[in-house]
């Protein structure tokens, strides 16, 4: 198996390789934006460190219940935070499912189970995204 | 594209890959752990909120306990920082000559962030107890 059997151009695996890096950096960037926006909204005096860290990891109202924020429904209800949450969930879910796929394929090799695994993970991914977006928008 | 080589797990651990190899192993373990723990937390929260499930509530009680959070915070921050190093070295491969220094820098950033978080976490919870 030499380099002559490697397909040039944008294969699925190459694209996912690129996406994993991009999504990882995007999540770090979204976390920084989340922290910054939290401080602008008054997190310095209204939350403690664990609350701020929970918020950074994923900005939803359940993560700030133990704080002195006057109105915690603000976090969920406006477009900025909902879009932030959807972006975080999208990048995280895709990044994670791809990582799972890579690890499992390392043990699986080129057998009949590989397309079945990819199909199964793909379905899980679609299901997770639909569920997450529903929860974010419908709460 | 598999090589016909059967290397056992413990034999593989003897490979002298040193720092970068342990970083790779730890990155995989933390990645799978994030999927397991965070995924469990997300599903438990969903069932707790929608159905008031007792099992889901117990899962979340464990997940949110401060002792467990010491582990979770390590897992998440390590995976993020290590991933950042990997992404940077993949985008600018000419920096690969500085792999060793990059790992030093990674730990140099990790230890204060993790240490401070853990210090505050333990301090708050020991006083409460």
Strand content of chain A: under 5%
Number of strands of chain B: 0
* Rough outline of chain A: elongated
**Total discrete domains of chain A:** 1
What is the quaternary state of this protein? heterodimer
Mean pLDDT rating of chain B: 90
Query: Helical element count of chain A?
Result: 6
Outline the structure in words.
The complex is a heterodimer of chains A (139) and B (129). Chain A is mainly alpha-helical. Chain A is built from six helices and no strands. In chain A, helix 1 (12-40) packs antiparallel against helix 3 and helix 1 (12-40) packs antiparallel against helix 5 (79-108). The radius of gyration of chain A is 19 Å and the shape is elongated. Chain B has 129 residues and is mostly helical. Chain B has a single domain (20-128), classed as 3 helical TM bundles of succinate and fumarate reductases, CATH 1.20.1300. Chain B is 82% helix and 0% strand. Chain B has five helices and no strands. In chain B, helix 2 packs across helix 4. The A-B interface holds A 1, 5, 21, 24-25, 27-28, 48-50, 53, 57, 62, 96, 99-100, 103, 109-110, 131, 135 and B 1-2, 28, 31-32, 34-35, 39, 45-46, 69, 73, 76, 80, 83-84, 86-87, 90-91, 117, 120-121, 124.
């Amino acid at each position: 198996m030499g380099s002559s059997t490697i397909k040039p151009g944008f294969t699925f695996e190459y694209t996912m390789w690129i996406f994993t890096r991009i999504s990882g950096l995007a999540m770090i960037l979204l976390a920084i934006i989340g922290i910054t926006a939290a401080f602008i909204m008054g997190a310095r005096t209204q939350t403690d460190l664990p609350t701020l860290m929970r918020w950074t990891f994923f900005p939803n109202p359940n993560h700030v219940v133990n704080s002195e924020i006057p109105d915690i429904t603000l976090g969920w209800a406006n477009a900025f935070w909902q879009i932030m949450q959807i972006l975080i969930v999208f990048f995280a879910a895709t990044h994670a499912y791809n990582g799972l796929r890579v690890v499992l394929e390392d043990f699986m090799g080129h057998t009949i189970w590989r397309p079945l695994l990819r199909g199964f993970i793909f379905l899980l991914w679609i299901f997770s995204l639909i569920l997450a977006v529903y929860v974010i928008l419908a709460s | 594209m598999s090589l016909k080589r059967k290397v056992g797990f413990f034999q593989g651990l003897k490979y002298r890959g040193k720092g970068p190899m342990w970083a790779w192993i730890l990155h995989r373990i933390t990645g799978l752990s994030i999927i397991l723990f965070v995924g469990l937390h997300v599903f438990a929260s969903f069932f707790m909120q929608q159905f008031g499930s007792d099992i889901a509530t117990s899962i979340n009680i464990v997940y949110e306990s401060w002792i467990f959070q010491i582990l979770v915070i390590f897992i998440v921050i390590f995976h993020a920082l290590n991933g950042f190093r990997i992404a940077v070295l993949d985008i600018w491969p000419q920096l690969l000559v500085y792999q060793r220094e990059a790992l030093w820098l990674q730990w140099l950033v990790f230890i204060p962030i993790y240490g401070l978080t853990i210090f505050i976490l333990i301090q708050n919870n020991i006083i409460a107890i």
